[in-house]
Amino acid sequence: MKWVDYREKLGIGFNDDAKFKMLSNIAQNYVENVIGDAYDKDSYLNYCQMVGEQFWGHGRPYQHLRDSFKYCRSMMELVARYIAFYNTYCPQFTGYSYYQATNKVNVINYLKQTLNDINIPFEVFEDEDGVFIFPRGAKELDAALVSEPLEWLKNYTNTHKTYVTALKQYSEGIYIRDVADNLRKALESFLQEFLGNTKNLETNKNEICKYFGEKGVDPGISGLFQPLINSYKNINDRIAKHNDAVDSKLLEFLLYQTGVLIRLVLSIEHS
Questions:
Q1: How far is CA 199 from CA 67, 94, 132, 266, in A?
Q2: What is the DSSP string of 51-70?
Q3: CA angle 219, 225, 230 (to 5 degrees)
Q4: Is 119 left (phi over 0), alpha (psi -120 to 50) or beta?
Q5: Cβ pair 183, 166 in contact under 8 A
Q6: Strand ranges in the chain using DSSP code E only, listed in sequence order
Q7: What's the pLDDT tens digit per position in 169-190?
Q8: Of 140, 147, 172, the residue nearest 262 (C-alpha)
Q9: Which residues pair with 171 in a beta bridge?
Q10: Predicted confidence band of residue 245 (pLDDT cuts 50, 70, 90)
Q11: Which of 48, 85, 167, 230 gets the highest tally of CB atoms within 10 A of its CB?
Q12: Which of 108, 113, 61 is nearest to 82 (CA)?
């Protein structure tokens, strides 16, 4: 049983401040006791340059990194700094023939496992630019409508790139119309890449329904798909007229709806 769940069963509870403190301590312990002397000054310098922090050339780099985690003021800042540490970490031998530095993959996997163990609602994704974090919603929805479509879209280069851009913008917590616009572009790009054309979303909603017919899909699916695209496009058009903040719940809906539409097409393709 998780420590967090154990406390809940005892009626103690575990609020966000307690989770933040626990994550902070775990990150500091990990750096000092697992990474240890394997963390070199070059990695630490790159970390300082990435986060805009003063570099201290004397002493042991991992000690300075530990202090960098120690004085974070929010969960998001702490996780972001850990990811910056991962992105700049270059494992080194410690000088002992029997001991090799912690593998870089293990560093990010440790964060993923820790976030899960403490029930902290962040998802960790990786692309060619490195790792980024995404606010997690309902676990079942995120797995089916965000994580899996993201993995499937690796064969659709332009769509994958645009979709990741939208996720990164959403993860920053600044809910602007650009997020909605990039989600729409991702869907439009996906249909173009999938169908092998350059038609816009409005035209390709008809083309994809023709494809469904050729695949022998129940006509009810096509009848449902078109109004979904219409509603999706109408919401995006209304958002595009405003340059101010967008309701986060509306963007979450569009995010999941993008996943629904992409997942449906790919599921039919592989059925």
A1: 53, 57, 32, 19
A2: HT-----SS-HHHHHHHHHH
A3: 135
A4: left
A5: yes
A6: 122-127, 130-135
A7: 887 666 677 888 899 999 999 9
A8: 147
A9: none
A10: low
A11: 85
A12: 108
